[in-house]
Specification:
Elements (H helix, E strand, L loop, with lengths): L1 H6 L16 H13 L5 E5 L7 H18 L2 E5 L3 H7 L2 E6 L2 E7 H6 L4 H8 L19
Parallel strand pairs: 1-2
Antiparallel strand pairs: 3-4
Helix pairs in contact: 2-3
């Protein structure tokens, strides 16, 4: 386990620390190390960056990407953040009320959505180039 903790960026001197002594990002790294311990062929990452600051989120994404490449495993990345998903996913599945409504490559889904629901989700993203006074929301009748 010591090697796994080092692999995810936890130093040897922190091995015996208590959980309350770890930051949120460090706790997330420990969870990733635990998930990697069984050498899975598929890693399921469910909202792995929730409640982390932008810098730590980037580090966690890079860590997951490196682990995926190094271990030649697949990763199922679950997130509501389409901007984040676009940086990590080869393929995207959009679900609405527990049903799969769209699937394709990241480029296909994000650049040319085929469902009204996906289009509405994409319209809700904040834009740097176009400042809105109020973000759009997804209509409930779609």
């Amino acid at each position: 386990m010591h090697l796994l903790l080092q692999e995810v960026g936890i130093s040897e001197r922190r091995v015996h620390a208590y959980p309350h002594e770890f930051s949120g990002g460090m706790r997330q790294r420990v969870m990733i190390a635990m998930a990697l311990a069984n050498e899975p062929s598929l890693l399921i990452a469910d909202e792995p960056t929730t409640a982390l600051d932008a810098t730590t989120s980037k580090q966690i994404i890079a860590l997951l990407h490196d682990a995926k490449q190094r271990r030649e495993m697949s990763m199922l990345f679950i997130s509501h953040d389409l901007s984040l998903v676009s940086t990590v996913a080869d393929e995207i599945c959009i679900m609405q009320s527990g049903q799969l409504v769209e699937h394709g490559t990241s480029k296909q889904v994000l650049c040319n959505p085929t469902t009204e629901y996906t289009s509405a989700l994409l319209a809700c993203r904040p834009s740097i180039s176009h400042r809105q006074s109020r973000l759009k929301s997804v209509p409930t009748d779609i």
